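Board work, copied verbatim: DUF742 domain-containing protein
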Amino acid sequence: MGAHGKPERESAEPSLVRPYTLTAGRTASTVRLPLEAPVGVVSPQQPPRWPGSDVRGQILELCAERPSVAEIAAHLSLPLGVARVLVGDLVVQGYVRVHTTLGEVATADERRELIGRTLRGLRAL
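↓ predict structure ↓
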């Protein structure tokens, strides 16, 4: 209760407790996930059976555009560690695939695009 007997307003800042409940407290992925690596959808053998608001379904929707792990975290307002764990789980379960980043034959334009996408994702965090 506040000083005038009224309930105090909750903080406008997002709570980090809820995102980490999504990962059961895990902070590391079992899959190597570079921040800049594009993540794409794979056609699974079994369609997911998650509720419509499940964050994993939201990640799958984003992965149609092959975003980076950093972009996924930014779009869903998740801490980067939580996004990494969730994306890693989806990789292990066969729903998404982490694509390689640029190889040695990449052009200067491809490298600039990758750097730009990574910076945009990181700034949005």
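The first strand starts at residue 39 and ends at 41.
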